[in-house]
């Protein structure tokens, strides 16, 4: 009887812990891992960050496995231009992407001569480095690094290949209740410019706002279990870095 009671008590404790974790993950904070270089230099492969689920309200995608318990977004708050956002890709409504919000509903987005235009206004960017080398998948690429200033005075870094290979684009008109996202690594990002795979993102697909990095490691140097390489692989300078 004593052993049975211990087992039951442990199962109850485990159940309550899982319920609490589910509530926190669904309503407040969820950790995410950065697997690609599309948001360099803002986010690096190996960064682990927290996303606030309450920032834009809640939809079915706020919950694990996107159960059909909400048919629309509730407690909705409009995101701001320049926010770094996790969303479910419209292609499958399952895969998590993280990009920077550039276009709001009704906006006209276009690249002309490698310059970003929003509603026919060129977005000012100032060159801050001519010699940066960043990743694009497993390759390294030479880039120009700029500080970009959006219409709401939000500042962030972006990088472009030195040959400015992405020159001109189609004109993108953001539909009602949708958003347009770009990666900061402009020449190495699958984002809203690619209508067949990402395209315009409905507000119901927003998962949350990226807030800060809580851990970061470079797997190219060594795995977490190779503790003798921690001094090289763990990026201590990125711990608790706010995402802007």
General description of the model:
There is one protein chain. By secondary structure, the chain is mainly β. It has a single domain (2-109, 177-242), classed as Umud Fragment, subunit A. Helices cover 12% and strands 36% of the residues. It has 2 helices and 15 strands. Strands 1, 2, 3, 4, 12, 13, 14 and 15 form an 8-stranded antiparallel beta sheet that branches. A hairpin with a 2-residue loop joins strand 6 and strand 7 (121-122). The longest helix has 26 residues, at 2-27. The model has no long low-confidence stretch (mean pLDDT 92).
Which features characterize this protein?
244 residues, mainly beta, Umud Fragment, subunit A, eight-stranded antiparallel beta sheet, four-stranded antiparallel beta sheet, 15 strands, globular
How is the secondary structure organized here?
Blueprint: H1 2-27, E1 29-33, E2 47-52, E3 84-88, E4 96-103, E5 108-112, E6 115-118, E7 121-122, E8 124-136, E9 139-149, E10 155-161, E11 172-173, E12 178-182, E13 201-202, E14 206-216, H2 230-233, E15 241-242
Antiparallel strand pairs: 1-2, 2-14, 3-4, 3-14, 4-12, 5-6, 5-11, 6-7, 8-9, 9-10, 12-13, 14-15
Beta-strand content bin = 35-45%
The major β-sheet equals:
8 strands, antiparallel
What kind of assembly state do the chains in view correspond to? single chain
Number of strands: 15
Give the overall shape.
Answer: globular
SSE series:
HEEEEEEEEEEEEEEHE
CATH superfamily: Umud Fragment, subunit A
List the uncertain runs.
none
In DSSP terms (H or I, runs of 4 or more residues), the helix count works out at 2
